[in-house]
Design a protein that fits this description.
Elements: H1 5-26, H2 32-37, H3 44-70, H4 82-92, H5 94-97, H6 107-113, H7 115-148, H8 152-200, H9 204-214, E1 221-224, E2 227-230, H10 242-259, H11 261-269, H12 273-307, H13 311-318, H14 326-334, H15 339-375, H16 381-407, H17 414-426, H18 429-438, H19 444-465, H20 478-496
Antiparallel strand pairs: 1-2
Helix pairs in contact: 1-8, 1-15, 3-7, 3-8, 3-11, 3-12, 3-15, 4-10, 4-12, 6-7, 7-8, 7-14, 7-15, 7-16, 7-17, 8-12, 8-15, 8-16, 9-12, 10-11, 11-12, 15-16, 17-20, 18-20, 19-20
Length: 507
């Protein structure tokens, strides 16, 4: 073990607190309503900070600094669209998603289109979340491996099992309250890192900004063999332009606030619609500056290693090491003892705040939207509660298996991979919800045709990404084009395959 006893003590206290919260809240989990929604009794500020913890994750703590260290701020642009998406969702999505005491985002799909579309939405979410939590657990295993010297596989097992245990025990209450604590710890850890960098770089913060500015590290663009190229503001499907990155962000955040159970479950768990709306605003106000801060941390790390060169930093820049390894390298070699323990706790908190939310949401969707709705419809609530705990356990196992698989693969920066995977697995869900929210056109058959077309498009894109066939666009635009395909086929077919008025299900 490489950890100093002081740092190890900090970590033990942190882990003990998280586990204690799981045990504490397990005492009140005697129904699915409590396990999934915490009795619908959360205030807006608690849910807001919980949403921050869920949205920032290890991708914020590790991948954002890694990406800014290796490139610049181009991939930060999508985050700027979160406030706009929140304003739209707060008044147009939220009332429909909370209607009639909903538990999941996919109940709306059944009210609007029928049970088959609800099932599709639920399955798509589960697949996407298993992929997401595997990636996040893999990221945190890098930190544990670098800091402690544990084998990468053992790091995955330790972190994965711990998160699964307190999530199984405590349900949504443990998830929400640990997310609040983890958000505070995460931001504190980042502040410690940037403080050390500013104190050690000659000239401090002004030098960092000036050096980064002169090297185009604070700009939006991309790097190639010919050097830095500023991002274009023109529409394009074959390159990452600033305008298109903003559009991707808007699509992504509207999808998050309409069809992502991690988010919608918190809306439903809030005391009231007003409290849920307050939570959305708190999340936007805290998340965007937090993302910007961690991007700047990566930029500051680049300046730091210009003054204090290291082999590990050079390997990240030349591509022989993964970008996500730069912050763990800095933590272990340049922070004082005690602070190291806190920052490691912050990195682990970043992962846990997303992992526990997704695992609980997977259990909620599997139990409520699939098992209770289509398989066992007349059981006592205790039966469904036990089933939810079993699903939580299975989700934890799949998360660990997925992370172990990622250890054996090589990727570009994981922020790139996360964006592409999100696009591939979204399946045009945003368009399905937007049609449902704002139009009375389209019923089950029209949406089913759109889903079929989107699946064909997605398979084609996956094959294209593996050089089996050619594709005429950047993979970043996969999700955007998927929603276009969904709209053209689903909405267009409603003019060809006419439905009787009574066949159109209205929410």
């Amino acid at each position: 073990m490489l950890l100093h006893p002081i740092d190890l003590t900090v970590l033990v206290v942190y882990f003990g607190l998280m586990l204690a919260l799981g045990v504490y809240f397990s005492r009140t989990n005697n129904s699915t309503e409590q396990y999934f929604l915490g009795g619908r009794n959360f205030s807006g500020w608690v849910i807001g900070l919980s949403l921050v913890g869920t949205s920032i994750s290890s991708i914020t703590f590790l991948a954002y600094p890694g990406d800014a260290f290796k490139t610049n701020w181009l991939r930060f642009l999508p985050n700027l669209m979160l406030p706009i998406a929140v304003l739209i969702a707060a008044w147009h999505f939220l009332p429909k998603l909370r209607r009639d005491g909903s538990v999941t985002a996919y109940e709306f799909l059944e009210k609007r289109y029928g049970p088959a579309i609800r099932g599709y939405g639920a399955v798509a979410f589960i697949i996407a979340q298993i992929t997401r939590v595997s990636m996040i657990l893999y990221l945190i295993s890098l930190v544990i491996q670098t800091i402690t010297g544990l084998d990468a596989h053992l790091s995955v097992l330790v972190a994965g099992m711990f998160v699964a245990i307190y999530t199984i025990l405590g349900g949504i209450e443990a998830v929400v309250w640990t997310d609040v604590i983890q958000t505070i710890v995460l931001i504190s850890g980042g502040l410690f890192c940037i403080t050390v960098i500013i104190l050690q770089v000659p000239g401090g913060l002004p030098t960092i900004i000036e050096t980064a500015w002169q090297a185009d590290k604070l700009s939006v663009g991309d790097y190639s063999t010919s050097g830095y190229q500023p991002a274009s503001w023109q529409p394009s499907l074959i390159e990452k332009t600033a305008l298109m990155m903003l559009l991707i962000g808007l699509i992504s955040w509207l999808t998050e606030y309409s069809s992502n159970q991690n988010t919608v479950q918190r809306f439903c768990a809030s005391k009231s619609e007003q409290e849920a709306r307050k939570a959305m605003f708190i999340c936007a106000l805290v998340s965007v500056p937090t993302w910007a801060f961690f991007m700047f941390l990566g930029t500051a790390l680049w300046v730091f290693f210009q003054h204090f060169p290291s082999e590990a930093a050079a390997q990240v820049l030349d591509g022989s090491a993964k970008a996500e390894e730069i912050l763990p390298h800095f933590i272990t070699n340049y922070l004082p003892h005690g602070v190291i323990g806190l920052v490691i706790a912050a990195a682990i908190a970043a992962a846990m705040s997303s992992l526990d939310s997704s695992i609980n949401a997977i259990a909620t969707v599997t139990t409520h939207d699939l098992y209770r709705r289509f398989m066992k419809t007349d059981q006592e609530d205790r039966h469904y509660l036990n089933f939810a705990r079993i699903v939580t356990t299975i989700a934890g196992v799949l998360m660990i298996v997925g992370a172990l698989y990622l250890i054996e693969t090589s990727t570009t920066t994981l922020q790139d991979l996360a964006t592409v995977l999100t696009a591939l697995l979204a399946g045009g869900l945003l368009t399905i919800y937007l049609i449902g929210f704002f139009s009375k056109r389209c019923n089950t058959i029209h949406i089913a045709l759109g889903i079929a077309a989107t699946m064909i498009y997605t398979v084609w894109t996956i094959l294209s990404s593996r050089d089996v066939v050619n594709y005429p666009f950047d993979l970043y635009y996969t999700g955007l084009l998927g929603n276009v395909v969904m709209f053209v086929v689903a909405y267009g077919s409603s003019f060809v395959i006419r439905s009787k008025p009574e066949e159109v299900i209205t929410p």
